[in-house]
Amino acid sequence: LPTPPARLPYVPQVPAMALLGKVTATTFALERPSCVFDGHADASDAVWLAVAFANASAAFRNPQSRAEVPRYKQLPTARSYMTLETAAAAYSCSAPSPPVLRVGGDTACRDQGRQDPCNGPLPSPGPYRVKFLLMGCRGPKAETRWSEPILLRTAVSPSAIDPAPARRGSAVLVIASILASLGTVLATAVLGALGAKVWGSLCLQGLGTDAFIRRSYRTHHIPPALPQPLPPGCGCGPPGLCCSAPQPPAPC
């Protein structure tokens, strides 16, 4: 019987650090298992990643050779596959390497239909569970624990988007409307006060000019005219008759 692989305490996980596209609708990122296989791996060994639906991980069986590795295209029926074949030396403590791996990042797998191990996009949100498996020429040598279930993001259908504002936002809209109205009233009051002040200043200037004009050009008081002496010849008329203009002398 083949020797059972060593059980390592390492648990694969999605990175805790902020990472763009850490989990998408078809992919997710994993921490790179650096220093995990030191002491178990030889130079010719390879590390694989087993991916299974969470409810099918308990039924997964480790392949005994590379020829038995389950392929990506079998995922819908076999409920699991293996991918990311990597030389064990790339995961050693001394190897410089990126801090994360991306599962499902090879979009060419879906179209080419090739038979070699492929890291194709995941077909559904899952959830999925993963583990790393160290494979030698005689079969599995060491394996990690299964990860916690990893759920991918779900794309929202355009028909499911409600074009109307959410009800919980109605109160916010009412408050915003009230604040906008108060702002308009306040602005109107300020502009009115400024306008009144400017108009008052202009009126004061106008009154000062008018008063100056009136003081400068006010007509002096003219006393009533004194009675003028009658012209000659007015005394020949009847008694009590005054002439206001020269009259021809009447015959005496």
Automatic annotation (TrEMBL):
The chain crosses the membrane at residues 171-194. Keywords: Membrane, Transmembrane, Transmembrane helix. GO terms for cellular component: membrane. The keyword Mitochondrion does not apply. It comes from the Eukaryota. The keyword Transmembrane applies. This is UPK3B protein.
